[in-house]
Amino acid sequence: MKFKLNELNIQMSPDYTKINEWDFYSSDVLTEFQQCIDEGLDVAEFNDRFIAVSEMDNCEEKNKEGDRLFSLVSKTEMRNDYPYNEPSDLNSIRELTKAHSYQMNNTIKLNDKITGAWMGRICGCMLGKTVEGIRTDELIPFLKETDNYPMQRYILSTDITDETKSRYKFGFNNNCFADTSDGMPVDDDTNYTVLYQEIIEKYGLNFSSEDIADSWIGYQSRNAYFTAERVAYCNFINGFRPPLSAMYKNPYREYIGAQIRGDYFGYVNPGNPERASEMAWRDARISHTKNGIYGEMFVSAMIAVAAETNCIKDIIFGGLSQIPYTSRLYCEIMSVLRDFENGVSQEQCFNNIHSKYDEHTGYGWCHTIPNAMIVVSSLLYGNGDFGRSICMAVETGFDTDCNAATVGSVLGMAFGINNIPEKWTDPLCDTLHTSIFGVGTVRISDRIKMTLKHIV
After folding, report:
1. How many helices (H) and strands (E) would you count in the chain?
2. Nearest one of 80, 187, 173, 169 to 127, comparing CA atoms
3. Which end of the chain, N or C, is surrounded by fewer C-beta atoms within 10 Å?
């Protein structure tokens, strides 16, 4: 007896209602359009076409229209009046950097600095994780009613009542709290720090972008990755290798995802921002382009510089020295620095960020540039105070756990573990949970020892 593959003559096509928006390019074409505009691509005349596709129900025809839009933007030229020059290849990036020298002024032992960096990152992440995704029009009233504004402590489970839940759209039900968690819960921000430690343990400091791509597939499931990382992961599976994995149907190519992955490269390159940022570039290029890449290079370089100085401005300029001065990221960070020097208040500084970027859109909330501006502002206005700085990064909104984790990592490296009060570190119980295959839950102290082993 012979059987047909499709015996019932059913039309074979995916159920588009079951596909996550990060896995379906056509579902987020307005983000693509905004990204193209900001990159300087001459796409303004296609505005109506992007809107029309975005309003379609997810279906095969929308998928085809998305393919047409991607083909269109891939062939679009840059605007003649675009003022920025933003390459993604390392040699071109290096040609557009400005060197910055600094005075070494730290006597803190490297062990204390590495411990501070790890603990600072995890504490900041814990603080912001509880309210990740909330917007400031709800965050600030909530902090005020719980006597935590300006923010000065973790948000606790006892801050949340049924009455509280009824007043806010943000869901507090499944969030982690420092007073009920057995250590740091699983989070992508801390997963990446451990994952790259595992990659260096396996491949050494000369790992390749291909090594990272293969490790992403081998160490975590697809659901551990978000936005640009999810797109890149699916592209790996479908045969797109770096750097095409970052470019193919990836509207999130300048989102914050790479910026949160660079810390470990700073940890293992103390005093060597060039080497730290080069390693960060090898990583970022698998999922990001342009300012998405620069964000990771900037953070890794800042942390490397923080190993030798606790001068906040030197740390920031040390990070800037590794990215193109012709980029949007560089220019926006310089605007924050100038405002700080000119006496602009903390409140006005953060208001300026909110006026430029809309936290209520996915693009504004998750883009590298506004979040990097928040990191820099928190470092400047926090003036070395660990708790105040990470709290500032959270109460400003946007990507709360990512920004506080980066601020905590920089300050932990700059000032060492003794600058982090125990009220922040005690709830961690030397425990970090991960979703990395074969790793699971780890002792933070063991990871610190491994880091010191990786420093050559």
Report:
1. 23, 2
2. 187
3. N
